[in-house]
Amino acid sequence: MSTTTADARADTFPAWLVGELRSDHAGETGAVWIYDGILAVSRDPAVRDFATRHRATEQGHLDLLEGLLPPAGRSRLLPIWRVAGWLTGALPSLFGPRAVFATVDAVETFVDHHYRAQTDRLAAEGIFPEIHALLERCREEEVHHRDEAREAGAGPAYGPALRAWAWLVGSGSAAAVSAAKRI
After folding, report:
1. Angstrom distance (rounded) from CA 123 to CA 115
2. Does the reported pTM lie above 0.70?
3. Among 71, 111, 124, 173, whose Cα sits 20 to 30 Å from the Cα of 180?
């Protein structure tokens, strides 16, 4: 979809949906950069394979959202989301695979709920079925990422430091969505 088509299309969206799509675009930007951060730091072959595969999926989500939301409708905070994403991937990579997988689990758990709220509202209002389907497909792929991360990071219960990090990642994701909806 060209920018002109995306501009015309976005003009038909209600304000709440534009804010949601802006937050989705910002989130997928951050997700691509999370995997870039993991790949920049981790030398573990299994982690690198996981990150390479999932980065490709996140880039696909980002491309889809860029087709819906014209540049003027995107978050003006994208440089911050890129840095925050990269750090969210790179920092746990310093501590090993379990930290990486716990981070992805925390992010994707948040994203599952975030996308679900959007698809539920679209379904309840009976509007934009093609956007509903696109967001539902993205949500399902994010749930797959979460489940794969959960399985890969399985083992003894996470210690207090890793639980605190996961809480911080989830809370940071929520704060980022709130900001991206508006800015």
Report:
1. 12
2. yes
3. 124
Extract the tokens encoding 181.
């909806």
**Confidence class for position 10, pLDDT limits 50, 70, 90:** low
In angstroms, the CA 135 to CA 76 distance is: 22
Distance CA 61, CA 112 (A): 14
Q: Which amino acid is at 74?
A: R
Second CATH level (architecture) for the domain 3-182: Up-down Bundle (1.20)
Q: How far apart are CA 156 and CA 162, in angstroms?
A: 12
Name the token pair of 113: 């709920």
State the Cα–Cα distance between residues 170 and 175, nearest whole angstrom. Answer: 9
Is residue 103 predicted with pLDDT exceeding 70? yes
3-state secondary structure of 10: helix
Identity of residue 6: A
DSSP classification of residue 76: T
- In the chain, domain spans: 3-182
